[in-house]
Amino acid sequence: MSPRKHKRREEKARPDPGPTRFDQIEGEYRVRHLTGESSTKVYRCPGCDQEIRPGVPHVVVWPVDDYGDESQRRHWHTSCWNARGRRRPTGLRW
User: Fold this and answer.
1) What is the 3-class SS of the chain, one letter each residue?
2) On the chain, which terminus has fewer CB atoms closer than 10 Å, C or N?
3) Residue 90: which residues within 8 A CB-CB, separation 6 or more?
4) How confident is the model over 46-63, as pLDDT tens digits?
5) What would the pLDDT profile of 29-39 be if each residue is shown by its tens digit?
6) Which has the higher per-residue pLDDT, 19 or 9?
């Protein structure tokens, strides 16, 4: 008897469920506020070009139209995101 082979399911694009209870829509962006408890990576804020260390509360922002495209997500310091209208991003842009 040969070993069983598991059939892989095709990955389907996830439909946009709309704003979750954790998301807010701000203009053309979806914004999720994170407490920092679950973050384990270092991110670079596009507003100030400084690091966001693990454990630091911050926001994750991405265009509303690109829900499934994680490459469009940007991690911002909360204060930098709130000040984005007064200054231009220094790093990556959409």
Assistant:
1) CCCCCCCCCCCCCCCCCCCCCCEEEECCEEEEEECCCCCCCCEECCCCCCEECCCCCEEEEEEHHHCCCHHHCEEECHHHHHCCCCCCCCCCCC
2) N
3) 46, 47, 48, 49
4) 999 999 999 999 999 999
5) 999 999 888 88
6) 9
Q: Confirm if 24 and 81 have CB atoms less than 8 A apart.
A: no
Give the pTM. Answer: 0.68
Q: Which of 19-28, 34-43, 60-69 has the highest mean pLDDT?
A: 34-43
Do 66 and 72 touch, CB atoms closer than 8 A?
A: yes
